[in-house]
């Protein structure tokens, strides 16, 4: 796991050498799911193509940091360039697994905001992650969750890729033992990537994409690719799994040395982990809303001798009915429509929507995620002039 590679001279040289998208770019106020998917594809396809041109295509698909480093030993470039190539190859592998089926989960913005408020202590089996309906999805997050990076720069989380993983940190599956996938002393948090629907993995791998903004938040200065591992064995609560990810031995990019802010490292990791955990728990819940999916672009005929057109992705809308309902309730409260009486005389406010996890079914092995809608409290008593103070941290 690591932070972004784009800062400094090495990062700028890599962008030019590998044909990566030019940065900085103007900041989009409301990034669409299609814009986010195209941004990620352009970046990762450019890096993948350049590695193949170098004759190092074998780096993409091994998913093993040790084997990748062995391949690079015979490549006649300096150590800094080797590190950049290895980094791009590590980012390209989850993308290569995604590209086989090209599944996009377009998450309703209000659904994302509600999921980020989830603080459940209900213990649930980690095996629920095996319920992912579609292989290796790319969760697109138009809500653009704010995050502060470890060097103190502001940014937004706009999506994450999910694959299967074999991790030495967790109990191996029978197939892992049979294949002796991790039989030698592994790196601290080395994972070997697989398809999410393969029987081999004992974990999930998430590669989170976020923007890095300038201090004035007017431009996207860089892109951050953050790699996380989530177990599929044992039991956990949402809060416990977030803590497990944070403790799992995060490895920062060498290019970030000297730029860390101690006070920013934990909040960065906590936001990254909670984004991934909350969205995955919703996606595998029995009550999740995932649409049938539509192509993200119309089919085109390939012109002879022309550039190869990218294959369309299948976009599934996630949480659009529930998210729209929550947003509508919030809108009505803001516009002063009367809410139900609660029997308590409190200042006008909105009790936020919050998701709850429930263990149900035979042996309570199934998990459902239910939302309590936002509740307008005494909104009809608000005269529009009175200011209500809510002290925080007193």
Chain-averaged pLDDT: 79
Radius of gyration: 22 Å
Helix content: 25-40%
The largest sheet, given as strand count, sense and whether it forms a barrel, is: 9 strands, mixed
| Count of DSSP strands | 15
The outline comes out as: globular
> Spans with pLDDT under 50 lasting ≥5 residues?
1-11, 184-189, 339-346, 379-390
- What is the H/E order? HEHHHEHEEEHEEEEHHEEHEEEE
What distance separates the N and C termini? 37 Å
Q: What structural class do you assign from the helix and strand content? A: alpha+beta
Number of helices: 9
Q: How many structural domains can be distinguished in the coordinates? A: 1
Residue fraction in strands? 15-25%
SSE map:
Elements: H1 8-18, E1 25-26, H2 33-53, H3 65-72, H4 79-99, E2 103-107, H5 109-115, E3 124-125, E4 138-148, E5 154-166, H6 174-179, E6 192-194, E7 203-213, E8 219-231, E9 235-236, H7 238-247, H8 262-284, E10 294-295, E11 314-318, H9 320-334, E12 349-351, E13 354-360, E14 366-372, E15 375-377
Parallel strand pairs: 2-4, 2-11
Antiparallel strand pairs: 1-8, 3-9, 4-5, 5-6, 5-7, 7-8, 10-11, 12-15, 13-14
Helix pairs in contact: 2-4, 3-4, 5-9, 7-8
Question: Summarize this, please?
Answer:
The protein is globular and about 65 Å long. The chain has nine helices and 15 strands. The chain has 394 residues and is of the alpha+beta class.
